[in-house]
Design a protein that fits this description.
The protein is of the alpha/beta class and 293 residues long. The protein folds into two domains: 211 residues, P-loop containing nucleotide triphosphate hydrolases (Rossmann fold); 62 residues. Helix content is 31%, strand content 29%. The protein contains nine helices and 13 strands. The strands form three sheets. Strands 5-6-7-3-8-9 form a six-stranded mixed β-sheet, with helices on both faces. Strands 11-12-10-13 form a four-stranded antiparallel β-sheet. A three-stranded antiparallel β-sheet has the order 2-1-4, with helices on one face. β8 and β9 form a beta hairpin. It is elongated. InterPro entries: AAA+_ATPase (IPR003593), ABC_transporter-like_ATP-bd (IPR003439), ABC_Transporter_VariousFunc (IPR051782), P-loop_NTPase (IPR027417). It comes from Saccharothrix carnea. Keywords: ATP-binding, Nucleotide-binding, Transport. It holds the Pfam family ABC_tran.
């Protein structure tokens, strides 16, 4: 089952395309990490998926319908924006009552338990909370809505390491217990490694690569050997990045086949290596995107 499908999706602000030519099929029941440099289009994609903005081109379908198309569709999607918006004059308890009033699937026990566990005073106005506490409140509202798809835009950026770990644990419990699907943008690669099993990399407003994390790592290799022209590589070895010294060439390739050339030392990549390679090399002149499954 696909929880988000996009075809030729684009969003233009005046003369600048914040997202263009986006084709995606995100599987349900997974945690998808949305990664890319600042300005790559991550927040724009999440805003389109939440129905907060309308596309300039192409189509997007979320949980089987057009984002923001009506109350039934809105109830299926939770969204926590980057700056974790809450109402400064409302208390924590009033936020929970508002959440219960607005969301038919509201899990009040989960919300109250989480608020108690993270130590938020229900009587305290949100304007008196620290940045990290406001983020925790917003995240609680997003989870307690019990959506089918939870969209998180840099959700843990303002949390300390202990709070960040607790939130990610709660998130994974929700995925396991309720089949929750998640799309989460983040710059924190350690957090992505901990919770994400699917990945989308955006660079320069375009999708560079998408697929299951395990398969992405299995189909990328670092080749190191005597200096050579990478144009001589086999056709099934798609170059992602290349660097040269006077005597040595290092190239990162995407391939489904084993590397048989004995002149190469073949090394595996970790997630950080993979992400930095794609984000540092927009792909001009290289083979077009292929979805890796």
């Amino acid at each position: 089952m696909t929880v988000l499908r996009a075809r030729g999706l684009g969003k233009k602000y005046r003369r600048r395309w914040a997202l263009t030519g986006c084709d995606l099929d995100l599987p349900a029941g997974h945690v998808t990490g949305l990664v890319g440099p600042n300005g790559a289009g991550k927040s724009t994609l999440l805003g389109l998926a939440a129905g907060m903005v309308e596309p300039s081109s192409g189509t997007i379908e979320v949980c089987g319908d057009v984002p923001g198309s009506g109350p039934a569709q809105l109830a299926k999607v939770g969204f926590v924006a980057q700056h974790t918006p809450v109402y400064a004059n409302l208390t924590v308890a009033e936020h929970l009552r508002l959440g219960a009033h607005l969301n038919p699937g509201w899990d009040d026990a989960l919300a109250r338990d989480r608020i108690a566990r993270i130590g938020l005073d229900p009587a305290l106005p949100a304007g008196k909370l620290s940045g990290g506490q406001r983020a925790q409140l917003a995240l609680t509202l997003g989870i307690a809505k019990r959506p089918e798809l939870l969209l998180l835009d840099e959700p843990v950026a303002s949390l300390d390491p202990v709070a960040r770990r607790e939130f990610l644990r709660d998130l994974m419990e929700s995925v396991a217990e309720h089949g929750l699907s998640v799309v989460m943008s983040s710059h924190l690669i350690g957090d992505l490694e901990r919770v994400c099993d699917h990945l989308v990399v955006l660079v320069d407003a375009r999708v560079r690569i998408t697929g299951e994390v395990e398969h992405l790592l299995a189909t990328h290799r670092r080749l190191t050997g005597p200096r050579r022209d990478v144009d001589t590589l086999p056709a099934d070895q798609h170059v992602v990045s290349v660097s040269h010294t006077d005597r040595q060439t290092t190239v990162l390739v995407r391939t489904e086949a084993p590397v048989l050339d004995p002149s190469w030392d073949v090394g595996e990549l970790d997630l950080e290596d993979l992400l930095l390679a794609y984000m540092s090399n927009p792909g001009t002149g290289r083979p077009p995107l292929e979805v890796v499954r």
